[in-house]
Amino acid sequence: MTGDRLIVPGDKSIAHRAVWCAALARGESLLRGVPESDDVAATCGVVQALGVRMVRVGTEVRIEGCGGAWPIQVVSLDIGASGTTLRLLCGLLAAAQGTYHLRVAAQLGRRPIEHVLGLLRAMGAEVESVGWGTADAQLRIRGRQLHGVRCALPVASAQLKCAFLLAALQADSASWCAEPVLTRDHLERMLPQFGAKLSHVRCPTCCNAAAADWLHVVPGPLRAAAINIPGDLSAAAPWIAMALVLRQRPLTIAKVGLNPTRLGMVRILQRMGARIELHAAHDAAAGEPYGDLTIFPSCLRGTTVLPSEVPSCIDELPLLIALAGLAQARTHFRGLTALRSKESDRLQHTVAACRAAGMALEQPDGDTLWIDGRPALRATPQQFPRTDDHRMVMLFSVLSLLADPRGPVQIPDACAVAKSYPGYWRDFQALWPDSECESF
Ligand code: S3P
Predict the structure, then answer these.
(1) Positive or negative CA dihedral for 156, 158, 160, 165?
(2) Phi, psi for residue 418 in degrees, rounded to 5
(3) What is the residue with the minimal CA distance to atom 16 of ligand 1?
(4) Euclidean distance between CA atoms 37 and 45, whole angstroms
C-alpha cells in the first residue's frame, strides 16, 4: 500500500486452477502472482504429496508437471479446509491411475460434495464419501477410465464445473456441459494456454434457452504454460466497501482481475450510485482481463439483486448486504441459498451481524432478504460471533469501522483472514492508521 493505491494478493481462484493445470501438464510451468494464502498452500501441498516437483520463491512458483501420470499412486491426502482444492482434485484424480484417500477438516466435511461425486460417477468414476458431515469425513477415489458425457450442471457452481472439465480432459471421448447461470470462467480462459481444446457451441437439440450455450471439451494432454495471476477482486471487496462509505478520498486498487464473471459487486454498486472507475489493461498470457479500479466516496441507493447475478458476486454478498444497510431506500436480494454452505452459514452470520449493527433486515425465507437502508446510520458497536470464516472476519472489520472509525477493532479469530489474504491486517492498518485490531 502506498498512499491511496493498494495492490491485493493474487487471485485465489485463478491460482488454484493454474497449480492444478501445471501439475497435470507435461513440462515446467511458471506461475507468477501466486498468493501465499492457506487455501492455495493446501493445493500446493497436495500437488507435492502426489509426487510433483514444485519450487516456490515468493509469489513465483515453478511446477514440473506429471503429464497425467501422478508419481505417487496410493496415498492418503490431507486436504484441510479448502473447498476449491477438494472439488477440483476430485475431477483430476477420478481419472488417475491410483487409489486415493482424501481426509478433510471438519468444516469442509460439512459442505456439499454430492453434486461433484454424482457428476463424476456419471462419467464412470469410482468415488465415494465416508462419514460425510462428521468430524471424520473422507473421500475415497479409485482412478478409472472416464467416458465423455453431455451434462446440464444441476447447480451454478464454478467448482462443480471445474471438477467436470478436469475430468472431461482425461475421458475417452468429448464432453459437453451447460450451466444454469454462467459462473467464473477462469479455467475455460486458462486451459487453451495449456494447449487444451475447448469451445462454446450451441446445442442443436436443446430447446432451453438458458442451457443453449454448451461448453465442448476435447480430451487431450496439457503442455506447460506461463501464467500471470492478477489481483483478487474478492480480496479487494472490503477495501471497495470502506472506500465508498468510510473514506474521504478516492482509493485505487491496482492490477486487479476484472473478469466479467467476477464483477457482480462492482456492477451492482454502480447501479446503486457508486462511482467506481475501471481502467482495464489486458494480459494475453493468462487470458484474463485486469486493470485498476478507482473507488470514490459515494451515496448509495437501493436496488434489486437477482439470482442470476449471485454467482458473479457470491463471495462479496455479505459486504453488499452491509452496504445496502447504508443505502437510500430498500434493497432486495434474491437467490441467496448458496451462501449457507460456504465456510460458514454466511447468510445467518451476515444477518445477525448487520442486525446487531443496527440495520433493518427482513428475511422472509432462506433465499431472500430485504434491507431498508439508512444512509446516516452510525452502526452500534457489537460483539461478533466466533467463526473461522475469512470472509465473515472481513465483513466484521467493515462493520466495526462503521461503528467507530478510530477503532479498536475487536474480532475473534481475526487471523482466519489468512485463508485468502494473510496480509489483510497489515493493509487494514495502512488504510486506517488510527485503528488497531485486537484478536482474541
Ligand atoms: C470458487 C467458487 C465459488 C466461491 C469460492 C471459490 C472457485 O464457490 O464461493 O470461494 O474458485 O471456483 P462455488 O463454486 O461453490 O459457488
Answers:
(1) positive
(2) -60, -15
(3) 157
(4) 12
C-alpha triplet 1, 416, 258: angle, nearest 5°: 50
Mutation probe of ligand 1 site: the residue of 20, 107, 114, 157 with most atoms within 8 A of C-beta = 157
- d(CA 26, CA 223) in angstroms, rounded, equals 5
The reported pTM is 0.96
Ligand 1 neighbourhood includes 157 CB (under 6 angstroms): yes
Measured distance CA(251)–CA(202) in Å, rounded: 42
| Residues 138 and 126 sit within 8 Å (Cβ to Cβ) | no
Q: At what angle do helices 158-168 and 12-24 cross, to 10 degrees?
A: 10
User: Rounded to the nearest 10 degrees, what angle do helices 12-24 and 83-93 cross at?
Assistant: 20
Are 70 and 98 spatial neighbours (Cβ–Cβ below 8 Å)? yes
Cell output for 239: 477495501
At 17-31, the pLDDT tens digits run: 999 999 999 999 999
| pLDDT tens by residue, 356-372 | 999 999 999 989 999 99
